[in-house]
Amino acid sequence: MSGFLFNDIVFGPVRSRRLGLSLGINLSPLHTKYCSFNCIYCECGWTPPSHPGKEELPSRALVAEALEHSLRELVADGYLPDAITFAGNGEPTIHPEFSGVVDDTIRLRDQYVPAARVTVLSNGSRVNDPTVFQALLKLDNNIQKLDAGDDRLFRLINNPVDPVDLEQLVDGLSKFNGHVIIQSMFLKGEYRGIVVDNTTPEAISAWLEQLKKIRPASVMVYPIARATPVHGIEKISPVILEKIASMVRAEGIDVTVYE
């Protein structure tokens, strides 16, 4: 499965189940996925075995130019986004100019659509990079992924292709001191002959322990909504998701279930 890819640097705005009307920024190449993870549920498909060269990534100047062009058109049409979101064909924070792009985006947001929330959808793999960390602190919605509470399940679900340690990742997320939103995908399936299920009591208990270390501003709980590269992954029912959410609330952490 090749997966779904975005063909523009700036795309949308699209109606997001979590963010409202969201204008997307794709910092990855337009023809391939560029990510530090190889999640078994990713709508973009599998991560290629080798990363593209820097020349294949949109430059900081090109991103700013594309964003300003789009914002001017949207303002002229009176069609204002609720969010400007770093997303697209992979992990936005691995772009070498991510910090500068964030600064440009905030400047253009303030100029054209000051009510929009600058947002990132990230897998958390770069939170321990000081430059990336400081850039993430500037965002209105710093949304980071945590799909598992133990290293075995983390590697089965998220399948990192770059060296990423779950303990270090969680430690980095905890350093945001609450300026972080955790997004967690729940699923059941099989990968390489191994059962994958992060909804078991043991898996939920381990995940909750990590949340207590991070103490995020809120948690987003959601099931798969699109085609996945691994066949047979099961969409978790709203009833089960609500049960998981109730356990998060019991820890004093705000949580929302998205169906």
Describe this entry's structure for a reader.
32% of the residues lie in helices and 22% in strands. By secondary structure, the protein is of the alpha/beta class. The chain has a single domain (10-257), classed as Alpha-Beta Barrel (TIM Barrel). Strands 1, 2, 3, 4, 5, 6, 7, 8, 9 and 10 form a 10-stranded mixed sheet that branches. Strand 6 (181-191) and strand 7 (194-197) form a beta hairpin. Helix 2 packs parallel to helix 3. The mean pLDDT is 93.
Oligomeric state of this protein: single chain
Give the H and E element order.
Answer: EEHEHEHEHHEEHEEHE
Q: Ends: how far apart?
A: 24 Å
Can you give the helix content as a percent range? 25-40%
Shape: globular
User: What CATH architecture label applies?
Assistant: Alpha-Beta Barrel
CATH homologous superfamily designation: Aldolase class I
Largest sheet: 10 strands, mixed
